[in-house]
Amino acid sequence: MAEQRSELPSDSEYGPDDAAPRTPLHEREDELRSGEQSLDKLCKEFEAGGTEIGELLLFAAPAGHGKTSVLDQIRRLASLRDPCTVLSGRGGERQTKEPFHVLRQLLLPVLGSLTEAERGEVFGGWYGIVGPAIGLVPPSGEMEPLDPQGVRDGLDYVLTQLAPRRAPLVMVVDDLHWADLESLTWLASFAGRARHLPVLLVFAYRDGEFAEEARSLQQQIEDQAARKHVLLPLNPGSVARLVRAELGEDADDAFCRQVWAITAGSPYDTEALLREIREQALDPSEENTPQLHDLAASAKGMTHQYWLEKLGPNTLRFAWAAALLGTDIKQGLAASICAQGPAEAAESVRQLRRHRVLKSSPNGKLDFVHTLLGTSIYQSIPPATRTGMHGIAATAVENSGGSLLEASRHLLETHPDGDDDIVRKLRKAAFEHLAIGAPEAAYRCLERALVEPPDEDDRAAVLYEAGCAALLTDPAATVNQLKLALELENGLDPAQRIDATFRLSEVLAHAGELFLASETCRAEADRTPPGPGRLRLRAAQFMWTAWQRDEEDGPGRSRALKELSADLTGEQMAERAVFALRAWDLTLRGEPVPRVLGLVDQALVHGRLPEELGWRNTLWGFELPAIVGLSYTYTDQLARAEKLFSEAILEFEIAGWSGAHRGFAYFLMGLVRFRRGFLAEAEDFLRRGLRLSERIAPDIPLQWDIVGVLADTLLARGRVEEAWELCQKYRFAPPFHQTAMVLPDAPTLYGKLLLARGDHEGAVEILTEVGEQLDKRGWRNPVWAPWAGNLALALAPLRPLEAREVAEDAVARARAFGSASATGTALRQQAAVWDGPRTVELLEESVGLLTQSPVGYELAHALVDLGSALRRAGRSEDAAEHLYQGMELAQHCGADGLVARTRQELATSGLRPNRLRTLSKDALSQPEWDVAKLAAQGVPPQRIAKQLDVELSLVHRRLASVHRKAGTGPEGLAKALGLPDTPEDGQGSED
User: Fold this and answer.
1) 674 with 823, same domain?
2) Binning pLDDT at 50, 70 and 90, where does residue 510 land?
3) Is 727 part of any domain?
4) Is residue 663 located within the same domain as residue 712?
């Protein structure tokens, strides 16, 4: 076994010349053996080709019990292993408020040494997000605030790529209880991921000294540990050996025993007492034991007077400066803080090393021999002097080339004095903290700036900045600060005031206070002069009202929105936002599709989102582009919706936004994939979104949005009980959210689930209530809330005549809306409550319409229903054609339940299910292309069949495949395929 170190501060660390430790550790054999075994396992399994071999080893102890010595020895053992890469970091008592301090120590040396080629491989697209956080590059003045979860996701990616390239990797973190919250949060998460990598994590901390907000992270880390060692006090024999090694072999047994009794076996207290005994030249004999109590009290207290007498005023002042800096102390910086020249500072360091207070670290900087010494010296600084020195330290850090990220922790410790320069620096520091994904640190800076206080002309702006900084971490603080900013008479300029109001309404809305959000915008709009700002507030008022679960006068709001949009031209961005809101309103009301799409086109610029309505633009938030995409989703423009939602995911990933924004984007993509019939892909996106939603909070609208569509997807895949269990787990059941709307309509989805489970009476009750509420609000969209068709299905075995009436009404609503998918689905459901020839007629019309839409699963369902109806009518040949086609499409969709049902139908017909073929989503076959070119020119199916000399049914089949692959109906086919949409002469009319 390699040479061991003593746990005494003087021996547990490098001596004055940074030589190897001089005395062995006592009573730490088990802990060191555990560390060595973990290193052996890591290296041997990696050499044998293992990759998922990570482990977490913990050492916990009260202060002064030698955990740092154990870690130093494990670090030394690891550094002797070839090819181990050893990364080291350490929490600092003074640096707990310095974001990413520990991670910068750990990762900056290795990541900063990567070649340019390695950097590209290790960082991928995360360099602009992770780089500023760990100090590789300074935060840019143009950077947007980063999502903290996005930074953590980026760190996960980087370490996952780095570990195999520097394997086996050993990460050692000491004083974890003092780690900054940003570093600790990531380390707690990475502790679970590390087991899948060739990484050994070794953490040490003082049990019971984690801050209140960090205790859950401590528990998370301990839950992941392979082993946790709690270091116990030394026994009398070990203390006796330490006494004799320091004072001579002739030390009396009684004297040694008394040293142990006074220090309770603490290695640090033992060394401190022995240092006092040595300096007092006290003989280690029994008759001198009474003096040990006073010496121990003096050594343990280490007051201002104690250090002054030991070090002298000049050396003590340098020690104070070092204590202010904490860890990784730069000698020149400490000298600047205490106003010492190079020669004087060098002498101070020499004295502090001689007294075993400071030591040199392997990186060339200074550190305290033991953290307790740093704590003692810091506490010995008179309070007024300490405050002043922090102010000097902040300036010295800046003058030495350091950033305000480093200087700000010193500024936080200064006394308020109305200094405008301090306010300016704190505001700039807050901006830099936001730019590296540390909003809590930013908020601390702005809180301190408000206490300074700022000039009255700036106070409202600082309140506004504080509110924005707290947006991701403390919505309540955001509301409070923005309200205060808006209440000040000498406050924000008009543009800032409008922006502050919008942001206040946004955070209220996201907290479920949609009525208050809407009223906030209405009240401010009433006092704002006409213009773009006022229109922005009016639009926001309508937007938050539209997301409310309940509304007193939905038709009235719709009329008001219509009046607001009547005279707009679309020249201003706020006008385009109003067009988008109007399109969504008409979508929910079930107004004709062409009117909806016309308004959407007016909201866009050349068919694309304008920059001001972009997904990451804070002027409007992500709700406006989502409304555009949802309008496309419910009007069969699924290819356009999918493109829009793909852009959202990409933008959020590039920006490192990994919270609600990306979760919502995954939900939207899952929704549109579900509508297109790509059920397996829909399920994947929705489950990804669900995982992200679980990071935020339980029972939030986003989570229920996802759960509702995921349950619908599982129903389509034939997994009814799994859908039910999912809803039970996430409490997806009435009354859902008290104030916010869940989309698509949650009660309708819940009624559909009850119907799938055979609870017809429960489904009737839910769906009847839904219909009454939505009709009162004026919302008649049969795709958003297909309650009527499902109510007809639920009523069929209970009250057949009523079921047919309801189904007829559902078809009427769908025809009024005008999308092929809405009408086709409603007809399929209507057919289910009839029998005989009428059923076949309805299903044939349903299939005809659905072949013109991009909704693959609905078409498969209708084809199978039609095949079954034809079989019952005795038309076996026609039945087989539709059943085979429906089964093929259902297989492509991932609708396993529908496939099984179709196979049963074929078996009942005496037909043998054929070998299923897989359709390509990425390209059209040549026969499909021939049909598509003619359809894009407006040629009707009958003429296409005649011109190509094929059966009409074959044309319909090929058209269905074309629409599904292109993700659009007939009206968008030409554009989707890049074909001219002008009808050829004479081809757009029937014979």
Assistant:
1) no
2) confident
3) yes
4) no
Residue 27 φ/ψ, nearest 5 degrees: 60, 30
Residue pair 872/860 in contact (Cβ under 8 Å)? The answer is no
End-to-end alpha-carbon separation of the chain, Å?
A: 96
Q: How far apart are CA 830 and CA 846, in angstroms?
A: 10
Residue type, 705: D
Which is more confident, 24 or 827?
827
Torsion, Cα of 425, 429, 431, 435 (10° steps): 150
The pTM of this model reads 0.82
- Could you tell me if 72 and 3 are in contact, meaning their C-beta atoms sit under 8 angstroms apart? no
Q: Where are the beta strands (DSSP E) in 476-619?
A: none
Is the pLDDT reported for residue 518 higher than 70?
yes
What single string gives the DSSP state of each residue in 187-237?
HHHHHHHGGGTTEEEEEEE-TT-S-GGGHHHHHHHHHH-SEEEEPPPPPHH
Burial of 822 (0-12, 13-18, 19+ CB in 10 A): buried
The three-state secondary structure class of 53 is: coil
CA distance 892 to 927: 19
Distance, C-alpha 329 to centroid of its chain = 35
Cα 671 to its chain centre, rounded Å, is 20
Shared domain for 802 and 673, answered yes or no, is: no
* R_g of the chain, CA atoms, integer Å: 36
The pair of three-digit structure tokens given for residue 291, joined into one six-digit string? 């003096």
CA distances, 351 to each of 312, 322, 332, 342, 354 (Å): 10, 14, 16, 14, 5
Q: For residue 788, which phi and psi values (nearest 5 degrees)?
A: -65, -45
Compute the average pLDDT of residues 515-522.
96
The token pair at 906 is: 């074929």
- Any domain includes 516: no
Across residues 795-805, what is the average pLDDT?
Answer: 97
Share of the chain above pLDDT 70, in %: 95
Same domain, 210 and 260: no
Judge contact between 788 and 771, C-beta under 8 A: yes
- State the CB neighbour count (10 A cutoff) for residue 874: 8
**pLDDT tens-digit series, residues 349-369:** 999 999 999 998 877 899 999
575: tokens are: 């006008």
| 637-641-643-647 Cα dihedral, nearest 10 degrees | 160
Residue 605 belongs to domain spanning = 525-687
Tokens at 537, concatenated: 């507030």
Q: How far apart are CA 236 and CA 261, in angstroms?
A: 8
CA proximity to 793, closest of 779, 814, 810? 810
End-of-domain residue from the set 431, 465, 487: 487
